[in-house]
Amino acid sequence: MKRLYRVAENKKIAGVCAGLGEYFNVDPTLIRIIFLVGIFLWGFTIVLYFICWFAMPTKEEIKD
To answer: Which ranges of the sequence are coiled-coil (predicted)?
Structure first.
């Protein structure tokens, strides 16, 4: 079962992009670039990042 979570090992700020990269099986750098471009084109992307930061649990929090 796939779970969406923040990753502490590969994080730059909060681990949101690293977690999204693991979830979608994509390089986290690509996700970071998408977020960065989104911040400059549409300002709401930074709000989306902060929402994900607070809503997504860390990988350690969801371990069974």
So the answer is: none
Query: How many residues are listed for the chain in this entry?
Result: 64
Report pTM: 0.81
d(CA 17, CA 34): 10
Q: How many domains does the chain have?
A: 1
Question: Residue written as tokens 């990269």?
Answer: 21
What domain range is 7 assigned to? 1-64
Both tokens of residue 13? 């700020």
pLDDT digits (tens, 9 = 90+) for 23-49: 999 999 999 999 889 989 888 888 888
φ/ψ of residue 51, rounded to 5: -65, -45
The label of the residue with tokens 């990988």 reads: 59
Mean pLDDT of the chain: 86
DSSP conformation class of 58: B
